[in-house]
Amino acid sequence: MFKVVMVATALLWSTGAYAQQFVIDGTVEDAKTHHALPGATLEVQELKRVAVADEFGRFTLPKVSAGDYTLAVRFLGYTVRLEKITVPTSGAVVIALEESPQLTDEVVVFATRANDKSPTTFSTVNKQAIQKQNFGQDLPMLLNWTPSVVTTSDAGTGIGYTGIRIRGSDATRINVTVNGIPYNDSESQGTYWVDIPDIASSSQSIQVQRGVGTSTNGAGAFGASINLQTNTRNDAPYASITTSGGSFGTLRNTLSLGSGLLNNHWVVDARVSKIKSDGFIDRGSSDLQSYYFSGGYYNKGTMLKAVVFGGKERTYQAWYGVPQSRLNNDEEAMLTTASNEGWNETQTQNLLNSGSRTFNPYTYKNQVDDYRQDHYQLHFSQRIGSAFTANAALHYTKGKGYYEEYKYNEKFSSYGLPAVQIGDSTIATSDIIRRRWLDNDFYGVTYSLNYDKDNLNMILGGAWNRYTGDHFGEIIWAQVSAVPTEYRYYFNNADKRDANVYLKTSYQFSNRLSGYVDLQVRKILYTTSGIENKQNALAVDVDFLFFNPKAGVTYSLSQSQQLYASFGIANREPVRDDFVDAPNGTVPKRETLNNLEVGYRKAGKNYALNVNYYLMDYSNQLVLTGKVNDVGASLRANVDKSYRTGIEVDGTIRLSDKFSWTANVTLSKNKIKNFDEVLYDYGADFDQYNEVKRTYASTDIAFSPNVIVGSGFSYRPIKNLEATWLAKYVGSQYLDNTSNKNRSINDYMVNDLRITYTIHPSFMREIGVSGLLNNFLNEKYESNGYTWGYLGGGSEYRENYYFPQAGTNFLLMLTLKF
């Protein structure tokens, strides 16, 4: 990798030796609104030189000889403009683009996205920003710099299993769609980005809506939504090779190809990627493969596009965390941890002798998660007359895989097996290796009909989706040979049907005032039956009917600044575990969120500012209480009243041609009005079993920091070279809902340095060398964790587990674009 980077760097400098004396610079904007179009591409056709407009729509093409040239300017949803220019120019060039009358890929996500007239709170990350930060880490790491976001990584490096929270809401409460198609797992409602690694390399833009947002398809947006759009039409043929590597044995290779517009109608794009990493946590390795393919037909009023993408992951399990006793290097406390966990001598010695921040309790070589997921989408859009556009999509997702575990001294009875008689001995336990499988299918249809004329815009849309999943477990090896090979000790299946219909209406009452109404009805049917992994019978048959209304207004103080306010109601069904683990006779309730958003937006020539106040008021929010069921599974319970409220400020300012600064701040308060914690008391001699309830008033919601700050300070000392100092501060968080500092995650501040150098030589489109120095101040921090405890022997015992993140580490990337 070092040699490759050095050769590439030498090539860059050598090609730069032939510098020309003139520069073409200017801005790209919307012809009607004069708003900047960040991410617009500009190509000097005679030189095959390309530039991309920055966040203010500005571009620079250095080292251009005197003469006459043609600039081809492109931006999604706009007509390509061919601008004739003479170099040297008389000043900055202003290029105004007209909206395209032809259908573009933007119609695929239009129905579920917000725009600058929507009274909702959102951030959109364009392709240029995605590519800058895309060193092969999972998608949450690329979104880490957007407002109110906290990310975490099981293996500590951002590769493998990663997580994201927005406004304190975890992934199960964040609606995710890819091209308008639901991505959340139907049962857990979680999002597993590891199943589609390097999807960022095939992403055109990502919109994050905070709060209820606009109506979308799939899981309820109960804290935020992430709307991802994959690659859009590229009229010019291209090929690119990206190689990145660095600390912890990380290596990523990506090959992308595109046909350009063929016969004025057809476009084909493809990508393959492979990512490997050893991880920061012991044995926390990842072996990831992914692909993307799309083929599209475009006519003036018609678009038909097939998209296929997916991935295969084999990840060593790093999800157990590191006990606090190990982090503190406290041998006596570690022995207590081992006793509380019931670990044997081998496991105890692993705890005592591992690294204090890299401990992994698993040592079995195949303690892995192995899963494959493939997505198939077919999109059709048709313009009908001058006012109507119809969209429909069919989709199918196939997922299958398992995680494998070595278990010590397991009771046969826990697997539905009788004790084994060998001679005069009765053997009731054995070491085993087991696999827990998930084999699932998800398919359905989404649709929308858009009417847009004069001052009225209406969208009638919705979806019907069905999920079927088989859950089963097998023993693939046991010390006792009498145990049947590949014995299936549990099996249950699930069937979930989800349908919704929504009507969105926006009306421009005047040049300054517009109104918005969004009404959604959602129906869910969920059944599951069989035997679950604790050998208990399952019989769940529930249905829900939700009405989710939203309304708001936007008032333009001027062409560049707006006030907006909206109020929305969202309802959400419990997840699979809430039903499966619920005590007999108990049915978890739906959760309801009332969301108020009030904000101010302003965009100037050299700056942009967004200020937002939010209130998210919950009824019957499901939270962990410490209570367990009769087989030891942790239970969530509905709490009557809880809320999140705060202020978000984010903005960008161009200080000069060399300096720019992007920053965001979230100050929040996250409370449960009344919370009952449950602990189990085993008595002075550990011969009892009683529930002890402790009541807390106005306590903090777990994993909800009151302060989140992000910053990106960029310096461009010379053309094509950019250095960005990225900083992230996350305030302290509690591991449970008791506001006890002894069960919390300390605040932390992480500093990264990203350096990018690109040139556009005559013989290819672009050569880029980038470096990312993560956590260069070597902050020792943990970004996630969990806790549990009990009473016994006259004492209270607590075990805290954390997920340490890597110290100083680096990634280097070489990109060649043809």
TrEMBL record:
Keywords: Cell outer membrane, Ion transport, Iron, Iron transport, Membrane, Receptor, Signal, TonB box, Transmembrane, Transmembrane beta strand, Transport
Residues making up the signal peptide according to the UniProt record: 1-19
PROSITE patterns in alphabetical order: TONB_DEPENDENT_REC_3 (PS52016)
Pfam family, one: Plug
Domain TonB-dependent receptor-like beta-barrel: 338-760
Family stated for the protein in its record: Belongs to the TonB-dependent receptor family.
Name of the molecule in the record: TonB-dependent receptor
